[in-house]
Amino acid sequence: MRGWIIYKENASLLRQESYEIHRLVEVAKEENIELEVFSPDQFDLTVTREDEKSILIDGKKQALPDFVMPRMGAGTTYFALAIIRHLERLGVYCVNSSHSIETVKDKLFAQQILAEKNLPTPDTMLVKFPVNVALVERQIGFPVVVKTLSGSQGSGVFLSKSKGEFDDLMQLIEATNPKANIILQQFVKASHGRDLRVFTIGGRAIACMERNSNGENFKANVSAGAKGKPHPITPEIEWLATQTANVLGLDVAGIDLLFDQEHFKICEANSSPGFEGLENAVDINVPKEIFHFIRIRLGIFDRTQPKLNDKPKAAKPSEAKRAIQSN
């Protein structure tokens, strides 16, 4: 089985995905998978009827892989998305699809879809400049979480604790970038500085960890210094995570859940979830789980491994006789 990873470092990320890329390549070798890593900048696309000539890497034609893993998440540019769409058109399986990546990149759109399916999410509001602070106070209340429309690893997320602090922040944003896309989200007090990261693959919740900043930050991202520890996957957690991934069309996802008294609310979904913190907290090999899912999804199995339906060879008469005598 052959695969590509499409990845480019993003200056806005607190921590680059070098760990994840290294682990995917390392485990691919163990699983007898040929895996190559390319940057979107290496691709050239041509819309043509001659499919085999329509995509070039470093100016050269290359045989298409069996699957592609985009690892850019919220940092996926239009050009990168065009590459993914083009590969899908050529029949290459992409984990995740261009549609699902584009959907979850827009946090407001993703929240709209989840709310439409009656899934529990924090109240969310789109900012319109000049901001009507009194309306925000009535609809969302303070403290309020301020988010950029697209972001990951906790970047572009702020907590305005009071009406005055929020007003100052909105004036600053309007003065510097009046066309900025900002959303406001209800602050869930019970989840201050902690949340759950549930990793889902192929509609299954394979691992869950609690992330906790120990009060040092209202955000619970491991990339921002929070610590992770195993957390049991209850039926509620499993249902929320798998439903979210399914509704958003994600085959591989990191679903973030907020503690809400005795229950949970869906914070957001990630199409290219990091898993360094998860592997450190939970005894699980994430790349191996992903590759096994892809093999099953594509029906391409490692011929060097015994098949499940292979029957053991019958013992030779002499071996059978010795076995009976020993019993």
From TrEMBL:
GO BP: any one term: translation
Domain ATP-grasp: 111-295
Positions of region (Disordered): 307-327
PANTHER family per record: COENZYME GAMMA-F420-2:ALPHA-L-GLUTAMATE LIGASE, RIBOSOMAL PROTEIN S6 MODIFICATION PROTEIN
Entry GO terms, CC: cytoplasm
Xref: InterPro entries: ATP-grasp, ATP-grasp_RimK-type, ATP_grasp_subdomain_1, Rimk_N, Rp_bS6_RimK/Lys_biosynth_LsyX
Protein name: Alpha-L-glutamate ligase
Organism: Pseudoalteromonas luteoviolacea DSM 6061
Pfam family membership, one: RimK
Keywords per UniProt: ATP-binding, Ligase, Magnesium, Manganese, Metal-binding, Nucleotide-binding, Protein biosynthesis
Coiled-coil residue windows: none
Names of the cofactor(s): Mg(2+); Mn(2+)
SUPFAM superfamilies: Glutathione synthetase ATP-binding domain-like
One GO MF term attached to the UniProt entry: metal ion binding
